[in-house]
Design brief:
alpha+beta, nine-stranded antiparallel β-sheet, 25 strands
């Protein structure tokens, strides 16, 4: 069972305990609040905490029915720290619930707060009062000096934002920061932003939280409801720093600093607290130390961190506390073994989906599998210019005659050799190269029409045949819909095939690494690992008609 963070326990223990009894329950909304949207009413619960002795509601939250008992804890903490008016922050002497499992759960969570948790089969007062609830906005309860906040923001903007570590560090490249103070042994920094979406740093308070969150993300299927995603997100145990380049309206994250058009936003996520802003100065210090030492580490090691494969790096720093004569020794290091573990965890572990010819009466139908190319592989078309083709003399495998290779090398001086790049991570690229070599290389490639009956969508499929005569999907291109900014893959493929014709149908499959590094989508020379010479052939010559996806 996850316990409350030490800083949270200390903060809650400072709240005065009163001799009152609170009632709490989780009630299905269906049939009780007719004015709500039907989708919300059918799939949500109302969590309510009531001070029975005073006769008013301290907190009330509406959550999706699939979210676990942690939501009840979040509502209880809100009732203690930020209750609805006219209540004041307080810690009850006893709470009562009417669910046995919830009683045992709360006993474990609240054991260090001197709160008795009892069971009672009926709570009529709570059921009577909750429908009359007045939705008063909770007041802020932050106890942090303005200058300490400014010191934290300055470190975030000057050491993290200006260095932009997301340009070369992926979310799998975790940095360990050993602090050994404030009841914290280590924090695990994850850099966000390589995909150009959200920029920031997540500081996980435990390695278990980091790993379990990543596993939950992997386990979520594309069909999961929004509530499942929200519940997974709230299972993290971390502090976070987000950078926002747009105007920010007033929100529950009440303090942030602008650097031109950039804002630094801080907060905390915990399964029992949910997502909140920072509340106590004792939270500021470990975050300040972690960000400053991380920024210095990135500054000192950028030439190594930009490499696709980062070895073990370790530095120690003396970090001065802001507005204090004291300091702390901090150790910062990369975690290459964990990075490899996280990258491997995202391998495509699905069953072998395959496609088959639409005409099931044809003899010679064969299965076409999609389990060779790693999930998330980036596909692009290019021409290898001039003498650069000789770069692959000792990094190539050919299913075509040696004389054909010589002819290609002569022609390439006048025009680029057409190839298709498959870019993935280094370990997956090496595994792909090994698998193709074991199947005697790539014999030929083609493009054909594919149909997914489960999603009712059509695609242009890239298909390769290995020397062992096995067939695999290497790319799935969506049909062009004419929307602005959308790639017309059919046109790109058609132009590429014309270039292949100038080489008598010969082309190449080029395996590259770097899909999570700075060269994502634009592999550099160091990222190019192996070239497979092959031929292009039409789908008609293979007897392929439209292919239908099957999950059998």
């Amino acid at each position: 069972m996850t316990s409350l963070p030490e800083s949270t326990l200390t903060r809650l223990q400072r709240i005065p305990q009163v001799k009152s009894v609170w009632e709490g329950d989780r009630l299905p909304i269906l049939g009780m609040m007719d004015n709500l949207e039907p989708e919300i009413a059918e799939n949500s619960d109302c969590i309510i905490w009531l001070d029975g002795s005073e006769g008013f509601v301290r907190s009330m939250d509406i959550v999706r029915a699939t979210i676990g008992p942690e939501a009840v804890v979040r509502a209880l903490l809100k009732a203690m720290e930020n209750p609805h008016n006219p209540a004041q922050p307080a810690r009850p002497e006893k709470i009562i619930v009417k669910d046995r499992e919830l009683q045992f759960f709360l006993r474990g969570v609240l054991q260090d707060l001197d709160i008795k948790v009892d069971y009672q089969p009926e709570l009529p007062l709570l059921d009577e009062l909750w429908v009359n609830f007045q939705n008063n906005k909770p007041q802020s309860n932050t106890h942090i000096s303005r200058r300490l906040i400014s010191a934290l923001e300055d470190v975030a903007l000057s050491l993290i934002w200006k260095q932009q570590p997301w340009q070369f560090l992926s979310e799998e490249e975790i940095i360990r920061i050993d602090i050994n103070q404030w009841n914290i042994d280590s924090l695990y920094a994850c850099v966000m932003g390589m995909l150009g979406q959200e920029f920031g740093i997540i500081l996980y308070r435990s390695l278990d939280s980091l790993k379990s969150f990543r596993q939950r993300v992997i386990d979520l299927s594309e069909s999961e409801e929004e509530g499942e995603l929200e519940s997974t997100f709230l299972q993290q145990d971390c502090w976070f720093l987000n950078f926002n380049e747009e105007e920010i309206e007033t929100s529950s994250f009440q303090w942030h600093k602008r650097d031109n058009d950039v804002s630094a936003i801080f907060g905390s996520i915990h399964p029992y607290e949910g997502i909140r802003s920072l509340k106590e100065e004792e939270e500021i210090y470990p975050i300040y130390v972690a960000l400053k030492s991380l920024g210095l580490f990135i500054q000192d090691n950028e030439e190594f961190l930009i490499l696709d494969e980062v070895d073990l790096l370790k530095n120690e720093y003396i970090i001065d506390f802001p507005f204090d004569d004291d300091s702390i020794k901090v150790s910062v290091s990369t975690m290459p073994e964990l990075t490899e573990e996280l990258e491997s965890a995202f391998d495509d572990e699905d069953d072998e989906d395959y496609l088959y010819d639409d005409d099931e009466d044809d003899e010679g139908d064969f299965s076409i599998y999609d389990d060779l190319i790693p999930a998330g592989t980036l596909v692009s078309f290019l021409e290898i210019e001039g003498d650069f083709l000789r770069f692959f003399d000792d990094k190539s495998f050919s299913c075509i005659h040696k004389d054909a290779v010589v002819s290609i090398q002569k022609k390439v001086s006048d025009q680029g050799f057409p190839a298709i790049i498959l870019q993935t991570t280094r370990p997956k690229a090496k595994e792909l190269i090994n698998n193709l070599q074991q199947e005697e290389g790539v014999l030929q490639i083609t493009f054909g029409q594919g149909y997914d009956p489960y999603e009712d969508e059509s695609y242009e499929l890239g298909i390769l045949e290995t020397g062992d005569n096995n067939h695999y999907i290497f790319a799935q291109f969506p049909q062009y819909s004419g929307q602005k900014g959308e790639k017309n893959w059919s046109s790109i493929i058609e132009n590429w095939i014309k270039k292949v014709a100038k080489f008598d149908g010969y082309c190449g499959i080029l395996i590259a690494m770097g899909s999570t590094g700075a060269s994502r989508g634009n592999p550099q020379t160091k990222d190019l690992l192996h070239l497979f010479y092959c031929r292009f052939t039409s789908a008609e010559s293979l007897g392929l008609k439209r292919l239908i996806m099957s999950l059998e």
